[in-house]
Amino acid sequence: MGQSVVVLETDPKLAQSLAGGLCSHFSVHLTRSREELRERLAKHNPQAVVLNIEDWRLVDVQTLHQDFPSLPIVCTHRVPDEEMWMAAMDAGASDVCPADDVANVLTSVRRSMGSTQGAAA
């Protein structure tokens, strides 16, 4: 499996649910801290990141986007609203999905990866 995704999620149930939904399409690397995320990014060179913005600030999304401008960042939240979606998009996220909607996260990751590959071509 050539493509990988790093998932930054502190809730073990959500992390396992996301990993379970993504693992049939990607190699999935679960992380629970910013430091671990950075290590995984350097080591695995993933094609996308999924990160829960309930646990991490939007400034973290912004920094990640500045450091890895071509890396799609799909944010998750328990109950995302339009204001949160706009703020996350302004920070550099490619989308915001409900944290427990694995199918939506998968669709968003695949769409985000497709749009960055198209931009790189």
Describe it.
With 121 residues, this protein is an alpha/beta fold. The chain has one domain (4-120): Rossmann fold (3-Layer(aba) Sandwich). Helix content is 50%, strand content 20%. It has 5 helices and 5 strands. Strand 1, helix 1 and strand 2 form a beta-alpha-beta unit. The model has no long low-confidence stretch (mean pLDDT 90).
The neighbouring-strand order within the major sheet is: 2-1-3-4-5
Provide the residue-averaged pLDDT.
Answer: 90
Q: Extract low-pLDDT stretches.
A: none
> How many helical stretches?
5
What is the number of strand segments? 5
Query: Beta-strand percentage?
Result: 15-25%
Radius of gyration: 13 Å
Order of helices and strands: EHEHEHEHEH
**Residue share in helices?**
40-55%
The CATH topology: Rossmann fold
Biggest sheet descriptor: 5 strands, parallel
Q: Helix- and strand-based class? A: alpha/beta
Reading off the top of the CATH hierarchy, the class is best stated as: Alpha Beta
Shape: globular
Measured between the Cα atoms of the first and last residue, the distance is 21 Å
